[in-house]
Design goal:
- With about 500 residues, this protein is mostly beta strands.
- Helices cover about 10% and strands about 45% of the residues.
- The protein starts with 5 loop residues before the first strand and ends with a strand.
C-alpha cells in the first residue's frame, strides 16, 4: 500500500440520504415467468451491473441498473427523472455502459450522453449513443455506431479551436473495444428545438428515433470532409470524424480531453497513454506503459490533468490510474510543449508538442481493488487590478503561490479492508520537494501526499471532492507545513447504493 499518513473521515449522518428503489419502467414486466428467466440468462450471464456518477457540480447524481437510468438530487434524495431504454421506446436488449455529462458549465439545462450496448442478434456489432435531457426526460437523439463503445468524453468548445471540430455544435469523443476513436457532432441546438416542437405536438411520439451516423476518415481531402458534413446536416443524420488509428489497435478504456493542448488523451487496455492533437487529428505521443517492475497488462481506467502555476516551461501533468485486477498504480506523466499561444478572449493553449514521460509512480494497492475516481482540483486567487490571465481565468501569481493549490484526488475501494480510500496529491508541495520520485526515500512519508479512509464500508460508485470547499487550515502552529496536503479541509460527496 502507498506510504503516507492516513486519516479517518466520518460521513455526516445528518446529510446522508437513502435513495428510493427504482420501480418498474414502461414496457418492463412486473412479474417474471420462468421462460423469461431462461431467455434472460442467454443475454446476461450475471446480474446487470450498477453504475453511478455525480453531475451538475455535486447537485445531482445518476445511477444505472441494466437499461434503466435514474437521476436523483444529492441534497434531498428526490428523484428528478427516471428513464428506461426499453422495447416500447424502440430499444431491444440494451444495457447502459457509459454516461457522460455534456456542457457541464451550463446552468440552464443538464444533458447526458449515454452509451448502450446492444445484445440482440440483429445488432450484435453495434452500440447506441443516446443524448438525454434530464429536465425534459426525453432522448433528443439516438445514434447507432458499428462499434462496441467502451468510453465517452465531452469535448469542450475550447478544445475544438483551430480544427474541423469548431464547426460542430457540441462534440463528444467515443472510444471503442476495437481501438477506434470517433469525434461526433452533437448538433445540439437543433436537437433541443426539435424535441421542444415534438413535445408540443397533440400526439406524443412513443418511440425514440435511432439514426445512423455518417463517419469519415480524418485523412480525406478537407473539401470532401466539409461536403460530407454539410450533407449529413441536410439529411438529418449524425456526423462523425474518425481520428488517426492507434498502432497495434487495443481497446480504449478511458478518454481525457485537454483544453490546454487542444488535445485528447487516450488510455488503452494494454496500459498505453496516447496523446492526440485535435487540430491535426493525429497522434503526437504513443507510449507511457508502466515502468518496471509494475509492467504487465495494466489498463488505464481513469485520468485527469493538472497545470503547474509557476513552472517556466509550457507543460502539464497527466495522471493515469492503472488497474491490473491484482494491484492499482497511479502514474503522473510530464507533457511538455514548445510555446504558449494567447487568444484575444484571454484563453491560451500550448502548441508544438516536445516530449512526454512518466515522472512519478505511486503504488496504491498491492491487491485487487476497485478504482473509483481521479479528479483534478485547482484554485487560483481572486481577481485584482494586477492580475494576469491563466487559461481564461484571472489570477495574481504571488497570491496563487501562497493561497492557491493544484491537487489530484485519487479514490478507490479495498474489498479486503472494506474501506474506501482517498489520496490527495499536492503538486505545489511536490515542486517544493524538488520533484522527488516516490522511491527515492523509502524511510519517510512524502509530504506531498495525504491519505483519507472513509468510514462507510460500502464500495462507492463515485466520490467527488467539491472544489468550492477546499481550504487550508488557518493556524499559527506548524506554519512551515501550511501548504502540505494534510493541512487541507474539504467536503466530498460519496455515492453508494447500500
Amino acid at each position: 500500500m502507498i506510504r503516507t499518513e492516513w486519516y479517518e473521515l466520518a460521513v455526516d449522518g445528518g446529510r446522508t440520504l437513502k435513495f428510493p428503489t427504482m420501480g418498474p419502467q414502461p414496457g418492463e414486466p412486473k412479474h417474471t415467468e420462468q421462460s423469461d428467466i431462461t431467455a434472460a440468462t442467454e443475454v446476461y450471464s450475471t446480474v446487470p451491473q450498477q453504475y453511478g456518477g455525480i453531475i451538475k457540480r455535486g447537485a445531482w447524481c445518476w445511477i444505472s441498473t441494466g437499461n434503466v437510468l435514474e437521476i436523483t438530487a444529492l441534497r434531498t434524495g428526490q428523484t428528478i427523472a427516471t428513464y428506461g431504454f426499453v422495447e416500447p421506446r424502440g430499444y431491444e436488449n440494451c444495457c447502459i455502459r457509459c454516461v457522460e455529462e455534456l456542457f457541464p458549465q451550463n446552468n440552464e439545462t443538464v444533458l447526458l450522453a449515454i452509451s448502450l450496448e446492444c445484445f440482440s442478434a440483429a445488432e450484435s456489432g453495434c452500440s447506441l449513443v443516446a443524448i438525454y435531457s434530464i429536465e425534459r426526460n426525453q432522448v433528443l437523439s439516438c445514434m447507432e455506431l458499428p462499434l462496441h463503445i467502451t468510453a465517452l468524453a465531452f469535448v469542450s468548445s475550447n478544445c475544438c479551436r483551430r480544427s474541423l471540430l469548431q464547426n460542430f455544435d457540441g462534440c463528444i469523443a467515443v472510444g471503442s473495444e476495437e481501438g477506434v476513436i470517433l469525434l461526433l457532432d452533437l448538433n445540439i441546438n437543433k436537437l433541443i428545438n426539435t424535441c421542444d416542437e415534438r413535445l408540443k405536438a397533440p400526439i406524443g411520439q412513443l418511440t425514440d428515433d435511432i439514426v445512423k451516423c455518417r463517419i469519415v476518415d480524418y485523412n480525406l481531402q478537407l473539401a470532401e470532409i466539409h461536403r460530407t458534413f454539410r450533407e449529413a446536416r441536410q439529411d438529418g443524420v449524425n456526423f462523425g470524424l474518425q481520428v488517426e488509428a492507434i498502432n497495434d489497435p487495443c481497446a480504449v478504456q478511458s478518454l481525457l480531453p485537454i483544453d490546454l493542448t487542444l488535445g485528447l488523451a487516450v488510455g488503452t487496455e494494454d496500459g498505453r497513454l496516447i496523446l492526440y492533437d485535435l487540430a491535426e487529428l493525429q497522434i503526437v505521443h504513443n507510449g507511457g506503459r508502466l515502468p518496471q517492475p509494475q509492467r504487465r497488462l495494466a489498463p488505464i481506467v481513469k485520468m485527469s490533468y493538472i497545470e503547474p502555476v509557476d513552472d517556466p516551461r509550457c507543460c502539464l501533468y497527466v495522471w493515469a490510474l492503472h488497474d491490473t485486477n491484482v494491484n492499482l498504480t497511479a502514474v503522473m506523466h510530464t507533457v511538455v510543449y514548445d510555446k504558449r499561444v494567447a487568444e484575444d478572449d484571454g484563453f491560451y493553449y500550448f502548441e508544438c508538442f516536445c516530449a512526454a514521460a512518466s515522472c512519478l509512480v505511486l503504488p496504491l494497492e498491492d491487491k485487487k481493488c476497485v478504482p473509483i475516481g481521479c479528479q483534478s482540483i485547482n484554485k487560483l486567487a481572486f481577481p485584482s487590478p494586477h492580475n494576469i490571465s491563466l487559461n481564461g481565468s484571472i489570477f495574481n501569481k504571488t497570491e496563487a503561490e501562497e493561497n492557491g493549490y493544484c491537487l489530484c484526488a485519487i479514490s478507490w475501494y479495498s474489498p479486503q479492508e472494506e474501506k474506501n480510500k482517498l489520496l490527495i496529491f499536492d503538486l505545489n508541495q511536490w515542486y517544493r520537494e524538488e520533484m522527488r520520485n516516490y522511491y527515492e526515500d523509502s524511510t519517510t512519508n512524502p509530504s506531498y501526499l495525504a491519505g483519507y479512509v472513509l468510514s462507510k464500508r460500502e464500495c462507492a460508485l463515485s466520490l467527488y471532492v467539491d472544489p468550492n470547499t477546499v481550504a487550508y487550515f488557518n493556524t499559527l502552529q506548524r506554519f512551515e507545513e501550511h501548504f502540505y496536503p494534510n493541512s487541507l479541509s474539504f467536503g466530498a460527496y460519496f455515492l453508494s447504493l447500500y
